[in-house]
Amino acid sequence: MRMTERLVVTFVLSLLLSVGCVAQTYKSPCDFSKYKYSWMDHFMPNGVLVQERPVYSEAAKAVNAKGTVHVDLIVDSKGNVRDACAVSGHPLLQASALKATWKTKFKPNFGLILPQSKRLRYMKTEIFFKFAGR
């Protein structure tokens, strides 16, 4: 192999190794590992008792921020939000969406009828807040 070929191969290999390291260190924005939960996205419409509307902040208005904010959350069996994080959406809208999420109240036991011994402690679900802009 010529010197130029060796340099190219070395460069490509080092690039692949560095990309592999970055991919392994990436962490999801939502770390719900401390909860033993079940995933249920279809209980949202019937399971919500109170849902706060997010406030469109002055900073978001100033830059005409708009779009949808996706929030993942953990709900306990009493219907309270235990944890939440914004997965996607405009950064100026995420804080407002999270504040509204924390004020959301769900039906006890997720609106499900389960025997006492089989009650779920936590449920993971998602909420989408749509901001239309000015």
What is the gist of this entry?
Helices cover 33% and strands 27% of the residues.
Describe this protein's structure.
It is a single chain. The protein is α+β, with helices and mostly antiparallel strands and 134 residues long. It contains 4 helices and 6 strands. The strands form 2 sheets. A 4-stranded mixed beta sheet has the order 1-6-3-4, with helices on one face. Strands 2-5 form a two-stranded antiparallel ribbon. Strand 3 (67-76) and strand 4 form a beta hairpin. It is flat and about 55 Å long.
Measured between the Cα atoms of the first and last residue, the distance is 62 Å
Q: Measured on Cα atoms, how large is the radius of gyration?
A: 22 Å
Q: State the strand order across the main sheet.
A: 1-6-3-4
Estimate the strand proportion: 25-35%
* Average pLDDT score: 77
From the spread of the alpha carbons, the general shape counts as flat
Total number of strands: 6
Helix proportion range: 25-40%
What series of H and E elements makes up the topology? HEHEHEEHEE
